[in-house]
Amino acid sequence: MDAPSYSAKEAAEVLGLPLRTLQSALKLDKYSGVDLWAVRHTLQKFPSPLGHRRQLFLNFKGGTGKTALSTSYAWRMAELGYHVLLVDLDSQGHATKCLGFEGEDFEKTLLNVLVRKAPMDEVIQHSPMPNLDFVPSNLTMSTVDLALMPMSAREFKLKNALKDVGQRYDAIVFDAPPSFGLLNLNALMAADDLFVPVLADFLSFHGLKLLFETVQSLEEDLAHVLDHVFIIVNAFNQSFKLAKEALDALKTHYPEYMLTAMVRQCTKFAQASSEGVPVFLADRDSKGATDIDAMVKEVLARIEAAQGRTTTTARDEKKAG
Q1: Phi and psi of 279, rounded to 5°?
Q2: Average pLDDT in the 264-270 region?
Q3: CA-to-CA distance for 129 and 123, rounded, in angstroms?
Q4: Cα-Cα-Cα-Cα dihedral of 94, 99, 102, 103, to 10°?
Q5: Any idea of the CA torsion for 230, 236, 239, 244, to the nearest 10 degrees?
Q6: Residues paired with 53 in a beta bridge
């Protein structure tokens, strides 16, 4: 991927600054990701801390647009000033491709970490955005589940592997394949937040049911409780009667998990994937980019609200004690 390029107006929007303030710090015709990062440091313009979250995009049903959402989410989080690590868990390497890279070009993947005990630093790669790193994937990852099978504490390999690098990142975003196996079990055990992309059709209910049963079993058997579950309706077309009916059903059955923000059907995601860029670089004024931005803001607001409640509860308990 070529280095991202922003107009002065776009750069000011990304940084959340008046145009005049941006240009007083650094006046350019075009701004790269490195330029934006330099302005953030100059003006100390950084977002509120997240607390080093691990966020998994997963649905056992395929075709929900999970990779387009996860890569666009990770990119937007980086634009907003967070340090992000995108981990491609799918042997097809689609998340890697959405960042403009080919998985086959990388000698090492997460397989080398989980199975061959290589340090995470050996597989982490840098994107053109200075605060967005990624772990690539390719076809060698297809053997991970089999290789993990005989290992002890096999469910915790990914969680343990991230201990050395986790504090560097505000968010570690996992893009998982649409299947259930040991690798996805590892991802669930490592995650704080679960993002479930769904289509507004009734076939999505089966995948959701299986996923929630799996999450419940992790709580009961392995004592792992997710902080948040976010259901994201993707590729929504309100002109379809069936889509509206499916959306109503989702809201009825999973009201506490549904995000208000929905991602509308948008051809720009396909264009972005073919060009090897996130949707924000393909067309940041598109419906897709607008909806991802709304999704990110809602997720951040929910996390911040939950952190506020936790802080208040802890303070109250301390006073009571």
Answers
A1: -60, -25
A2: 93
A3: 17
A4: -60
A5: -30
A6: 171
16 conformational bin, left if phi > 0, alpha if psi -120 to 50, beta if neither: left
Cβ pair 9, 23 in contact under 8 A = no
Mean pLDDT of the chain: 93
The pairing of strands 53-57 and 125-126 is: unpaired
- Interhelix angle 268-275/66-79, rounded to 10 degrees, is 80
Cβ-contact 56, 74 below 8 angstroms: no
Q: What is the mean pLDDT of residues 123-138?
A: 97
CA-closest candidate to residue 176, choices 144, 201, 153, 217: 144
Q: What is the pLDDT at residue 239? A: 87
Cβ atoms within 10 Å of 201's Cβ, excluding its own: 17
Return the structure tokens found at 64: 């929900």
Mean pLDDT of 182-208: 91
Q: Could you tell me the CA-to-CA distances from 226 to 172, 230, 250, 310 in Å, in that order?
A: 15, 11, 20, 15
Distance CA 183, CA 126 (A): 23
In 41-97, beta strands by DSSP E:
53-57, 84-88
| Counts for the chain of helices (H) and strands (E), in that order | 14, 9
Confidence grade of residue 2 (pLDDT, cut at 50, 70, 90): confident
Residues 77, 289: Cα–Cα separation, whole Å: 12
What are the structural domains, with CATH classification, of the chain?
1-46 (no CATH), 48-320 (3.40.50.300)
pLDDT tens digits, residue range 28-75? Answer: 999 999 999 999 999 999 999 999 999 999 998 888 999 999 999 999
Residues 147 and 111: their CA atoms lie apart, in Å, by 9
Antiparallel, parallel or unpaired: β 125-126 and 171-175? unpaired
| pLDDT bracket for residue 320 (50, 70, 90) | low
